[in-house]
Design brief:
Largest sheet: 5 strands, parallel
Order of helices and strands: EHEEHEHEHEHEHEEHEHH
EC number: 2.1.1.107
Protein name: uroporphyrinogen-III C-methyltransferase
Pathway: Porphyrin-containing compound metabolism; siroheme biosynthesis; precorrin-2 from uroporphyrinogen III: step 1/1; Cofactor biosynthesis; adenosylcobalamin biosynthesis; precorrin-2 from uroporphyrinogen III: step 1/1
Strand order of the largest sheet: 3-2-4-1-5
GO biological process, one term: cobalamin biosynthetic process
Helix content: 25-40%
CATH class of the largest domain: Alpha Beta
Strand content: 15-25%
InterPro entries: 4pyrrol_Mease, 4pyrrol_Methylase_sf, 4pyrrole_Mease_sub1, 4pyrrole_Mease_sub2, CobA/CysG_C, Siro_Cobalamin_biosynth, Uropor_MeTrfase_CS
Structural class: alpha/beta
Length: about 280
Amino acid sequence: MTDPMPLPGHVWPEFQPGWVWLCGAGPGDPGLLTLHALNALRQADVVVYDALVEPTILDWAPGAERIYAGKRGGKPSAMQRDISLRLVELARKGRRVLRLKGGDPFVFGRGGEEAQTLVQHDVPIRIIPGISAGIGGLAYAGIPVTHRDVNQSVTFVTGHDQSGNTPQTLDWAAISRGSQVIVIYMGMKHIDQIAAALLDAGRAPSEPVAVVTQATTDDQRVLETTLAACPADIDAAGLEPPAIICVGRSVLMRQALDWQAQARGESARDTDPLGRGRPAESA
């Protein structure tokens, strides 16, 4: 293979004509793009991109045609089958097609559906994972999805299904019992139903909840609330999607790990959010 991206110590994959690379663009901050994604952008003939892709990322593909294929809940958008077949059409024309999706293409991103269609039409593919908002977005808010003193399990769920409604196939009672931390994608529209289901399943009304909108971007906002209060607090704060919602005690870690606030010169609110007593002074 050639080395189209001149970085030392690695031979980068060559983007062949007629191929489709399905690539994650990360949660927003262009710096969270992977090197494989950058390599793909530099070689692509056409970039088919989603609504959640940070626009400045496209500048790294200056010679590529740009085709918008964003899908946002409640807004007019292309049908998924039409997007998938457009990828097939472009590849059959001998184009090097980069399908660029926010976050990771295989995490609530329909990347698996598109890959299936391409394989069924004998179009060769490459998968380039990306940082998912459910991990990277929360990290930018100072919330680790796992912490040894807090949780040994985390569950990722979507807040709506193909019909746009709260997923009927999810067993919220089982999720509530089985996972100490729950990360909800695309859940703002139905947060009242989701919160009620978790409360009915036995989660405490006072359980910490964080809502992170526009994660990792300059417009990021973080609302800290509780499970019982989150629907009203989201309305009162005027938050808009896209958002990641985290339910569980790991939200408390933001009190000590809000690194963006610390970078602004603000001190941590509590050096021991888990209530174990403050650490001893160093000798």
